[in-house]
């Protein structure tokens, strides 16, 4: 079973292997930098655990866990 971005603990980094979304959402994730081979770091959780701030391509992006669960990492 593939590991997904929503499982990445705060303070750790991983490499994106695939984005399992379709259509406009997939295109938007790719525009934000979530491309295969990109290194992503989980930076901070909100007080209630959702969303989570991720660092990718020198940018900080907050994603809902439901969207992060569609991004496969290794």
Describe the structure in your own words.
By secondary structure, the protein is of the alpha+beta class. It has one domain: Ferrous iron transport protein A (FeoA) (SH3 type barrels, Roll). It is 19% helix and 39% strand. It is built from 2 helices and 6 strands; from the N terminus they run E-E-H-E-E-E-H-E. It has a 6-stranded antiparallel β-sheet. A hairpin with a 6-residue loop joins strand 3 and strand 4. The N and C termini lie close together (11 Å).
CATH homologous superfamily annotation = Ferrous iron transport protein A (FeoA)
CATH C-level category: Mainly Beta
How many helices? Answer: 2
Named CATH topology: SH3 type barrels
Got a strand count? 6
Order of helices and strands: EEHEEEHE
Overall 3D shape: globular
- Low-confidence parts lasting 5 or more residues at pLDDT below 50? none
Total domains: 1
- Report the sheet-strand fraction: 35-45%
């Amino acid at each position: 079973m593939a590991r997904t971005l929503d499982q990445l603990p705060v303070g750790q980094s991983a490499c994106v292997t695939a984005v399992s979304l379709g259509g406009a959402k997939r295109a938007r994730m790719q525009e934000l930098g979530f491309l295969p081979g990109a290194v992503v770091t989980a930076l901070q959780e909100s007080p209630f655990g959702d969303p989570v701030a991720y660092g990718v391509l020198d940018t900080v992006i907050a994603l809902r866990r439901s969207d992060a669960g569609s991004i496969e990492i290794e």
